[in-house]
Amino acid sequence: MADYILGCGSTVDLNEAHLKERNIEVLPFHFRLGDKDYNDDFGKSISYKELYAEMAKGVPAKTSQTTAGEYEEAFTPILEKGLDIVHVTLSSGISGSYESCLIAKKTLEEKFPGRKVYVVDSLCASSGYG
Questions:
Q1: pTM of the entire predicted model
Q2: What is the sign of the dihedral through the CA atoms of 12, 17, 19 and 24?
Q3: Strand pairing partners for 94?
């Protein structure tokens, strides 16, 4: 295996500093709060305090996974640098993110035949996955 980048989804529920210290690339999941969309980005686009206050008021919140296209967009520059990717996803039992990542893997390995994308189904959620 060539040099590689380790990645995961933001659903690992670890803090940004912990992940940066270990050079782990994080792809955000998304959520909708009321009628506005956000990335799960460590509270940058909306503070956790504001998020929970809105939810406590009854504002509806829904989550959504990273799409195959978003995986491709994030992984392409890494593969172009000649690096492989090991990406750990949220459990396939509760999310389609594993399947989306597999779709991106197939497309990208055809586009970059010398590179490998390893997709690991964590079979876990939240900090257990982290």
A1: 0.90
A2: positive
A3: none
